[in-house]
Amino acid sequence: MNKDEFFIKRIRELANLSYQRDIVTFSDFLNLNEQNIVNEQKNQMPGVIIECSGGYEQAERQMVAFHPDALLFPWEYPITCLKIEPLAAKFSESLTHRDFLGAVLNLGIERSVIGDILVQEHTAWIFCHNKIADYIIENLTRVRHTAMKISKVDNPEHFPTPHFETISGTCASVRLDTLIGLAFQSSRSNMVSFIEGGQVFVNGKLITSNGYEPKDGDIVSVRGKGRFRYEGIWGQTKKGRYSIKLSRYQ
């Protein structure tokens, strides 16, 4: 049994458990490829409703919930948001997403129980499974050489808002390869290998066609590059080219 087959087996087990016991079951945090596999399996899991959340709007890594279609009691995702910030900001090193993720994984924690990590200046917000939150609070004291303090964020209004870089340009047609090339400042031909190699997702769905045309507001994710939101066409040049805008996540 290969990795994908084992994953599908586990997802079906969670769906069956939800249906048979009339309860809500949850996966760990899934990457875009795993989310796409779940979407492809939906029709083979009757009797349950499948929903996703990463703890905040438009999260990339998401937890899947399975629950009966006639469920009568309220439920919540077992997701905790932790705010990790320096004890003394003025003495903090310049820290990146990789630094914070590395510090967490060095505690012996599996990547599957960690969702998105949002970094702004010296501070990070880490979305994790409830079962691991207290362990992180008790054991994560430093990121690289910087001493840290950690607190739980219970109010969604205190979650960070993503930062965007606005990118504009012109193109002859609104194709996926063209948009990716513009977003990551590369030629359209250089982006073809990402699309054909199964590394491009639109709203969490794997897309392998270079000519796919995203709709306004679609979120495009490119593994190893980043993600952006397609804002749409805002004009047309005299030569008939489309003027488009993108918002790239920072």
Name the features.
single chain, 250 residues, alpha+beta, five-stranded antiparallel beta sheet, S4_RNA-bd_sf, RNA-binding protein, RqcP2_RBD, RNA-binding
How would you explain this protein's 3D organization?
- The chain contains 6 helices and 14 strands.
- The two termini are 38 Å apart.
- The protein is of the alpha+beta class and 250 residues long.
- The longest helix is centred in the N-terminal third of the chain and has 19 residues, at 3-21.
- Helix 1 (3-21) crosses helix 2 (32-41) and helix 5 (176-183) packs across helix 6.
- Strands 9-14-13-12-10-11 form a 6-stranded antiparallel sheet, sandwiched between helices. Strands 5-6-4-8-7 form a 5-stranded antiparallel sheet.
Describe the secondary-structure layout:
Blueprint: H1 3-21, E1 25-30, H2 32-41, E2 48-53, E3 62-68, E4 79-86, H3 97-105, E5 114-120, E6 123-129, H4 130-139, E7 142-143, E8 146-153, E9 164-171, H5 176-183, H6 188-196, E10 200-202, E11 205-206, E12 219-222, E13 226-236, E14 242-249
Antiparallel strand pairs: 1-3, 2-3, 4-6, 4-8, 5-6, 7-8, 9-14, 10-11, 10-12, 12-13, 13-14
User: Could you tell me the mean pLDDT?
Assistant: 91
State the helical fraction: 25-40%
Topology, number of strands? 14
Major sheet size, sense and barrel closure = 6 strands, antiparallel
Strand content: 25-35%
Q: What is the distance, rounded to the nearest whole angstrom, between the alpha carbons of the first and last residues?
A: 38 Å
Calculate Rg over CA atoms.
20 Å
Helix and strand sequence? HEHEEEHEEHEEEHHEEEEE
Shape: globular
Regarding quaternary structure, how should these chains be classified? single chain
Structural class: alpha+beta
Order of strands, widest sheet: 9-14-13-12-10-11
Number of helices: 6
Q: Which segments are poorly predicted (pLDDT under 50) over 5 or more consecutive residues?
A: none
Keywords: RNA-binding
Organism: Blautia intestinalis
Protein name: RNA-binding protein
InterPro entries: Nucleotide-bd_a/b_plait_sf, RqcP2_RBD, S4_RNA-bd, S4_RNA-bd_sf
